[in-house]
Amino acid sequence: MLDEKPLVRVEGLRVAFQTHDGPVTGVQDLSFDIRPGECLCVVGESGSGKSVSALSLLRLVEFGGGEIAQGRLLFQRAQGEVDLAKAPPAAMRDIRGNEIAMIFQEPMTALNPVFTVGEQLAEGLIVHRGLSRAQARARALDLLGEVRIPEPERRLRQYPHELSGGMRQRVVIAMAMACRPRLLICDEPTTALDVTIQAEILALIDRLKRETGMAVLFITHDMAVVAQMADRVVVMFRGNKVEEGPVGQIFQSPRENYTKALLAAVPRLGEMAGRDAPEPMRLMREGQVARPEPVVPRAPEPLLEVRNLCTRFPVKGGILRRTVAQVHAVEDVSLTVNAGETLSLVGESGCGKSTTGRSILRLVEPTSGQVSLGGRDILALDARGLRKARRDMQMIFQDPFASLDPQMRLLDQIEEPMLNYGIGNRAERRDRIAQLFDRVELPRGFMRRYPHELSGGQRQRIAIARALALNPRLIIADEAVSALDVSVQAQVLNLLMELQRELGISMLFISHDIAVVERVSHHVGVMYLGRIVEIGTRRQVFEYPQHPYTRQLMAAVPVADPRRRKTGEDLRFRPIASPIHPVGHAPAPSTYHEVAPGHLVLTEPATHG
Amino acid sequence: ERGSDGQVNVIMWQAPSTMNPYLSAGTKDIIAGSVVLEPLASFTPEGEVVPRLAAEIPSVENGGISEDLKTVIWKLQPGIKWSDGTPFTADDVAFTAEYCMNPQGGCAQLAKFEGVEKVEAVDELTVRVTFVSPRPDPFSAFVGAQSPILQKAQFQNCLGEAAPTCTEQNFNPIGTGAFVVREFRTNDVISFAANPEYRDPAKPAFATLLMKGGGDAAAAARAVLETGEFDYAWNTQLSPDVIAGMEAAGKGKNAAAFGSLVERIHVNLTDPSSSLPEGERSTIKHPHPILTDPAVRKALSMAIDRQLLTEIGYGPAGQPTCNLVPAPAAWASENTECLTQDIEAAKALLDEAGWTVGAGGIREKDGKRLTLLFQTSVNAVRQDFQALIKQWWSEIGVETELKVVDPSVFFGGDAGSPDTFQKFYADVEMYANNFEGSNPEPYLARQTCDKAPGPENQWQGENTSRYCDPEYDRLIGEMTQIVDPAERGAMGRRLNEMLTRDSNAIIPLVYRGTTSAVSNALGGVKLNAWDSELWNVADWHRVK
Amino acid sequence: MLSFALRRLLLAVPTLLFISLVIFLLLEASPGDPLGDVPLTVPPEVKERMREALGLGQAWYVRYALWLKQFFWVEPLYWFDRVFGTGFSQGMQRIISFQSRSPVFDVIAERLPQTLTVVGLSYLVGVMIALPIGIVSAYRQYSWFDQIGTFVSMVGFSLPTFFTGVVFIIVFGIKLQWFPSIYDTTHRVTDWDSFLVQLRQMAMPVAVLALYNAAQISRFMRASMLDNLRQDYVRTARAKGLSERVVVLKHVLRNSLIPVVTVIALGLPAVFGGAIITEQVFKVNGLGQLLILAIHANDMPMVMTLTFIFAVLIVSFTLIADLLYGVLDPRIRYD
Amino acid sequence: MTDRLLIEESAVNAAAPGAEALPPADPPPQAPARSQWRDIWRQFRSHRGAMLALVLFVAILLFVAVGPLVWTIDPGFVDIRARNQGFSAAHPLGTDQLGRDMLARLMAGGRVSLAVGLTAMAVALTLGSLIGIGSGYFRRLDAPLMRLTELFLALPLLPLLLLMVTLFREPLGRAMGPAGGTFLLIVGAIGITSWMQTARILRGEVLGLKEREFILAAQSIGTPAPRMILRHVLPNVISPIVVAATLGIATAIITESALSFLGLGFPPDFPTWGRLLYDAVDQMQIYPWRVVLPGLLISLTVLSVNYIGDGLRDAMDPRIRGR
Ligand SMILES: Nc1ncnc2c1ncn2[C@@H]1O[C@H](COP(=O)(O)OP(=O)(O)OP(=O)(O)O)[C@@H](O)[C@H]1O
Ligand SMILES: Nc1ncnc2c1ncn2[C@@H]1O[C@H](COP(=O)(O)OP(=O)(O)OP(=O)(O)O)[C@@H](O)[C@H]1O
Ligand SMILES: [Mg+2]
Ligand SMILES: [Mg+2]
Ligand code: NI
């Protein structure tokens, strides 16, 4: 396999962007090869030029204001070798989607909102394969099956917004694989997915690679995924390649300091075994060493108490638009968050984690249940009271870019909550903003920037600063770090923990990254189909998982070690059950068995396994 | 020969909405109706009465008019047929009177039948009209295009309340005229065809007549004078240089006919001030603070250059005038004193009357400034007049504020609107008016004290100046008794002068003709301002 | 979606009734008198008689109720009779115009064809030139095409039709003699030649109106396209190897049409309402001219009926726009 | 084995090996602190069309504002001997049919037209935005406000305007002086009869915007509705507003002249561009300049506003500003 001619040879690639402050170089002097049937992983921190390199291969940078300033992109076609950097547009159109396909980083925006999934899938097939509509449809159906989307028949007729984030990502993957490209570029394909589905997708790509000899360029920040997927690894740093080598070599004997640091910073499941309190993450850089103190709350008394929370979304239909069915997004959930402690919620995509968080804040109206924060009944408040109550509880949203107003300067965005509650005068607010910038370790000079001028990690820190501006007692962090690369992730988590330690803030931490959850939580709840199936202290849940779903989740977590790869056979894939029930449906209350003090496991109804 | 000249195209930019002149008093509708329906007698362009369906014009001499002036006998021409072939009889004439005089009908031409006691068919061809009181001038009912004869057979089910529902009849009346309606589209197009039963077998020369509505005066004139698409355009009142430019294309001419239309300024003799309570503004109760001074009114009139106004606004279609009644000749006063503008004399007059020049060149007296609000309807010529007059008045120290009102409101007579010409919530206002037929008496009679609009008569009435002179009222009362035409004329001239020269309650400006554009290819047109313009459409023919 | 439409239709009934009441009161309150056109020579007493003959003696609510009955009961019955030859509407008073004393609906039926052909066609032409101009202008933002397109459309929009129409007449009607300056509403298309005549007489009014409409729609189209061309899904479409044409005309266009649909749908009732000034300039006596004449003549029944028909159209077209929204953008939910 | 070791090693929470050799995480910010407005201005300046348009617009403003101070002929002065003149030293742009100076009339007319155009557009935009955003944002207001919009779309304009004159001309004239009263009346009349399209379009945009997450985020930090609309919604729907504004000015200038034919406009001795244009149409063949000049000024104004709007929209969008 290795002596085959490379499918792609990138030589001395340099990409420049024309910006207002002059040209900016996105990638500099980058060279690498990919052979057929090989998976090349590109890793590196945010903004290091990974996406730009991938886009250059399809010559899509040009549409984003970039330009391939130098270098050759040689691609082996049936007709012979072509330089993609100079190929005419017609040839490029023939290659795109057909011989080289790409899975984009943001699944939310990569799909056209006004066409059905089926149409978007069929398009490429019709153009490149000359299939009829019916044939293309049949093929699209197969593809959806391949990416393990439940009920593919129905999905074909659905629109992107009708799918959950994870499903959308899988549609994008199916689209890229539609024409069986010879090179598949995956730009962070699994960031939005929970571990079980991530494992399925990775297995699928791996199988295609093996079966069809497809080459894969895999971009990710998740070292565990790299370990699972890669044949060879390219490490990038600020637009340059710093190291390249086979996966084993990179993981066992990294030569460059950057690579070493990167590897070392990766949290690994199980490393907290035996410890009670959460501890800060390892950091990559010197001068950023966190105090190695575990986070031990001083007074673990309950701050947030949620009892029998239910949130249902109506599904309307019929002539009179009556509610014909309901999405039982959150079903009889009870949990308690102590002051100064962190409760994490984990579970697969669409199981109701975000909805739980939003219901507590009443950003969606819960159907029933009780929520009390520091003794105040949140659900009984009127609009004015609610606004007051929100001062004490803040949310960090799943997608930092989407949750920041693109038209507003960072300064104003952070000032806004203080303005809303009339805190301080102008000068005092400015002081506080400056302090917050220091706190989240952003240079004060960034204050006048706009969200799109920051990297993903920086944006996330702005979201955190905004949440902190009011000195809340509770922060709900919804996937606050999943989009971040290892180094930034560590910084952000450490920041949160430090704040928790200093200010006694409580946190409801929502994540699908089990390794991170292990690192930060005091307590952990595992959700499935709207219910908490298991809840307890971190040690109880991680070290003695009881519920079958919890066990499955743990098993699916990838390990950052190329020698301990999981194969598809290790994972038992099963279709996801639907949370939609007819209107009259009254689900049984959740009954728990207390296996140990504070460690509850769902017994009735049997939701899983 | 009948029908040999093909089609004649007439454009009426105000489109006719009905063919029945008894249901609409609009000139456009009367003109359209006159193509089909005919009266017993018509007015000539000179204002004389000539027989149409009547065999002769009744007079005391030929016994047609009784000695006591209370009955008129009309003799009809024998052998006339309706366009459906049935004979035209005296019954139809009597029916027409019944039709219009029906109290439920809302007849628009009721005024024509004013004072008529009854109309009877004496025999097949004789009609007797009986008046309530002696009538020196009996030529109103059945004379002129406003009161033509309807066919009894067609309209007998359309009396009273049913009148407006007879759409078919109102749009396609059977007539005795030169043409019959082929298709009627309200406010749009009417197509006519030559009447096969028309009394003169050689007429009309045209086989069809198309009457198109819509657009504006300029477009209508353009269609005749520049593109030649049409042969005749009604009411092409445009500024003289525009007309001259269009005529230069050599396709036709703009012709004018003079009737009795006079553009004038009414001076409000009562106080329109908005500080008065509603219902008392512009009523006799409160005299006007400045305009009751005759010197001021006179000065206003003297400052105007009527010659120039005519030249700019109407060209050949106008004549400067000092009279409210410019015609017929017997009634037209010799009053020409106002025709020369005299600013200096006007100033002197005001000085003499104690109006001294104050701040900003505006005259004042006893704390009252000579400031006037001058209103008129929206109309390009009137706005030019306003601008000119404003300037002249400013030269004699009178400040003028201008105001314009939408014509449909200004002339709309809505008692609820403050902007009608009758309410006259302004100091001076300008508009034009005329009288019908050739007897100005009723016209002058509308300037008496009791005809002043006010809340008690729902602001109807035409004495908009609120002119009130007992002497005038007395003379009007006397006039009804006078029979001798010469004496009547002299009396009329006296009344006219009272209103204009003596009191300046009304300041006449321009004697206006009605203008129409006529293609060079159209012959036989005789413009007529006293009757329908198409009164002689039967004589029209193509000029090769 | 269907249920949404039904619900909105049901809601439309009270809305329209309310609108009709407001229009009636507005017409009632606004100054003017149906006898405004009557020459001043007609004495006031006669005018008073005429006014009573028009039924104006009654209180406003009686007349409103009568109008409602005529509009919703008598007229439908009449047309039913016309179609099926029955006689239900015998002896019932239809809505009669003050001006012409003829049934309002007959006049409207007479006017509808020319309005629809001229104004409707111009709107169609306008939309058909506006969309490509908007699309290309946005795709090639700040190119020569865009600059010229912007220039022409802004000038086209800022010059009123009473001006452009006359310029057209002078140039093409008088100087070049290509087209007639007066529209013949009685013209019937029977063969090829008469069709050509029809085309020639429609050319100028359609061109003038189309220019005006296109100017406005193309601006909105361009703005909307610009917003959408920057979206991520465009990149995805390109990555599939679709040609630029498909990317722009399918993916971007469909998204950009969403706001433009509102503009187009809002403009459609105006098609039925006619283009008052253009109809006037070219003597196309359509509904616009009818309405303006009726207003000037204070022809209450005519104005009321026409306006109400427009109201019905407006309500239905906003509903259609809302439904189209849903068709074009599946994210929009109806609840 | 190695695996195990790695964990042990890392668990000490120290900096990772090799970290000392790495450069600091964030490069110090190079861009100096910028003010938002200066930034927008800078971007605006780089938009050639917009700058040109701005210069033109300012020139037009100066023409109508300062012009009359330099060219002091009274626009209403009738010099009957000098009527219908062509370009000359005494009357650089000729005279009209009454011998009034065209240059002076264009300057005076521009004052009125621009004032009316800009204010009426502002009124219509404000109303349209308020109602459009209100109904898009507040679900409860949606139905009533949209029905209101339909009502206004359905109302016959002419009778409405006539009614307004009847009701308000005198009271307003008394309170503000005739010119002021008329101005208010006209601006009001145009404003309340031309906001509907803007409202409908904005409602659609807001409906879409409301689904965006940053609106939810703003809610969670307790942003009250007015601030939400002002700070978050409005700036994000600027694009259709800009288009509506441009088209609105043109319509308002023309509508003003149409109003004067209802007697609703300014007194007849008050020239405005729209009226100058209308009055000259009949004489277009004889005196073409009299139509061309006001037509040109209206078009130039609308064009310049359009380009300024374009530039402003680009400048206001931080995502394109970088380019
Ligand atoms: N359209 C653009 N205009 C200007 N600069 C750009 C543009 N796109 C990317 N860049 C710059 O190019 C560099 C590389 O960006 P790229 O998107 O490849 O990062 P990445 O490695 O994919 O990061 P992430 O993990 O956050 O996706 C960054 O510094 C970014 O600022
Ligand atoms: N506004 C809504 N209307 C209808 N259904 C909704 C709505 N929001 C969420 N849901 C449904 O509720 C369920 C739970 O959604 P939620 O967003 O809470 O999932 P999650 O656990 O946060 O998933 P992820 O990991 O993908 O973020 C899903 O089935 C989703 O389809
Ligand atoms: Mg990237
Ligand atoms: Mg979520
Ligand atoms: Ni299980």
TrEMBL record, chain A:
Q: Which InterPro entries match?
A: AAA+_ATPase (IPR003593), ABC_transp_ATP-bind (IPR050319), ABC_transporter-like_ATP-bd (IPR003439), ABC_transporter-like_CS (IPR017871), Oligopep_ABC_C (IPR013563), P-loop_NTPase (IPR027417)
Going by the UniProt record, its keywords in alphabetical order are: ATP-binding, Cell inner membrane, Cell membrane, Hydrolase, Membrane, Nucleotide-binding, Repeat, Translocase, Transport
Catalyzed chemical reaction(s): glutathione(out) + ATP + H2O = glutathione(in) + ADP + phosphate + H(+)
**Per its UniProt record, what PROSITE patterns does this chain match?**
ABC_TRANSPORTER_1, ABC_TRANSPORTER_2
The Gene Ontology biological process terms listed for this entry are: peptide transport; transmembrane transport
Q: Where in the cell is it found?
A: Cell inner membrane
Q: Which GO terms describe its molecular function?
A: ATP binding; ATP hydrolysis activity
- The EC number(s) given in the record are 7.4.2.10
Name the membrane topology term. Answer: Peripheral membrane protein
Domain of life of the source: Bacteria
Instruction: Give the Pfam families listed for this entry.
Output: ABC_tran (PF00005), oligo_HPY (PF08352)
Enumerate the spans annotated as ABC transporter domain. Answer: 8-263, 304-554
GO cellular component terms listed in the entry, alphabetical order: plasma membrane
Family assignment from sequence similarity: Belongs to the ABC transporter superfamily. Glutathione importer (TC 3.A.1.5.11) family.
Function, as annotated: Part of the ABC transporter complex GsiABCD involved in glutathione import. Responsible for energy coupling to the transport system.
Query: Subunit comment for this entry?
Result: The complex is composed of two ATP-binding proteins (GsiA), two transmembrane proteins (GsiC and GsiD) and a solute-binding protein (GsiB).
- Stated name of the protein: Glutathione import ATP-binding protein GsiA
Q: Which organism is it from?
A: Paracoccus pantotrophus (Thiosphaera pantotropha)
TrEMBL record, chain C:
Q: Which residues form a coiled coil?
A: none
Q: Where is the ABC transmembrane type-1 domain?
A: 112-321
Listed Pfam families? BPD_transp_1, BPD_transp_1_N
What is the scientific name of the source organism? Paracoccus pantotrophus (Thiosphaera pantotropha)
Q: Which domain of life is it from?
A: Bacteria
| GO BP annotations, alphabetical order | transmembrane transport
What is the name attached to this protein's record? ABC transporter permease
Q: How does it sit in the membrane?
A: Multi-pass membrane protein
Under InterPro entries, the record lists: BPD_transp_1_N, MetI-like, MetI-like_sf
Automatic annotation (TrEMBL), chain D:
Record flagged with keyword Transmembrane helix: yes
- Identify its membrane topology class: Multi-pass membrane protein
Keyword annotations: Cell membrane, Membrane, Transmembrane, Transmembrane helix, Transport
User: From what superkingdom does this record's organism come?
Assistant: Bacteria
A Pfam family matched in the record: OppC_N
Q: Which InterPro entries does this entry report, sorted A to Z?
A: BP-dependent_transpt_permease, MetI-like, MetI-like_sf, OppC_N
Membrane-crossing ranges are 50-71, 112-138, 150-169, 175-195, 237-266, 286-309
Primary localization class, coarse: membrane
Tell me the Gene Ontology biological-process terms attached to this UniProt entry. transmembrane transport
The family classification in the record reads: Belongs to the binding-protein-dependent transport system permease family.
Q: What is this protein called?
A: ABC transporter permease
Provide the species name: Paracoccus pantotrophus (Thiosphaera pantotropha)
